[in-house]
Amino acid sequence: MATYMILMGAPGAGKGTQAKLLQEKLGIPQISTGDLFRENLKNNTELGQLARSFMDKGELVPDEVTVAMVKDRISRPDCKTGAIFDGFPRTVAQAGALDELLDDLKGQINIVPFINVKNDAVVQRLLKRAELEGRADDNEETIRTRLSVFREQTAPLLDHYRARNLLVEIDGEQSIEEVQADLLATIDNM
Ligand code: AMP
């Protein structure tokens, strides 16, 4: 059976790092909407140009645009056996759209690990990432916007998936290896 998983967590919680490790271990692809947008920015596509203004401000790219991009990505053959969604869905509307997209693939969300990290800790991590990676949207003002967007638009999804018995909380303030071990144990117990 295919395994479709959503990694939830605030910006800086470690979703990307963990999704990459899980992708290797489980042999199913990571789908990071942030990475897909950044790739489009780099290649200067129409989609990239559209996304840029939102990303630069730390705001969400409109749902229709984001969902269309994900639809295109998950229709590729490598997603038939599952996928690890990283940074998607980020709104209630995106969550509804994802259910429909998976219906078409005869799949469903199997598990939603939530990597929980306290607000102060994510700010520190994002500022450090800004120094190391120089990501354009890792400056203090944008970080503040991204965290408030998370609280207002994305955090309601935690209750949405909790109510569906899919949410599993993971302590994201442990080491990368410990978080990964917890994630794998959670998936084993699914
Ligand atoms: P991330 O790398 O996941 O932190 O995403 C970087 C930026 O890309 C976000 O601040 C948004 O502007 C945009 N983005 C990524 N994923 C989504 C999404 N699911 N919905 C809307 N915008 C997104």
Distance between the termini: 12 Å
Q: Mean of the pLDDT scores?
A: 95
**Global structural class:** alpha/beta
Shape: globular
- Low-pLDDT residue intervals, each spanning 5 or more residues: none
Percent of sequence in beta strands: 5-15%
Please describe the biggest sheet, giving its number of strands, its sense, and whether it closes into a barrel.
5 strands, parallel
Q: Estimate the helix proportion, in percent.
A: 55-70%
Number of helices: 9
Order of helices and strands: EHEHHHEHEHHHEH
Q: What does it look like?
A:
- It is a single chain.
- Helix 2 crosses helix 3.
- This protein has nine helices and five strands.
- By secondary structure, the chain is of the alpha/beta class.
- The chain starts with a strand and ends with a helix.
- Strands 2-3-1-4-5 form a five-stranded parallel β-sheet, sandwiched between helices.
- Bound molecules: adenosine monophosphate (AMP).
- The site of adenosine monophosphate has 17 residues, from helix 2 and helix 3.
Task: Give the helix/strand layout.
Elements: E1 3-7, H1 15-26, E2 30-32, H2 33-42, H3 46-57, H4 63-74, E3 82-86, H5 92-104, E4 109-116, H6 119-133, H7 140-154, H8 156-163, E5 167-171, H9 176-188
Helix pairs in contact: 1-9, 2-3, 4-5, 6-7
The structure holds adenosine monophosphate.
Adenosine monophosphate binds at residues 11, 33-34, 37, 54-55, 58-61, 66, 87-88, 90, 94, 137, 146.
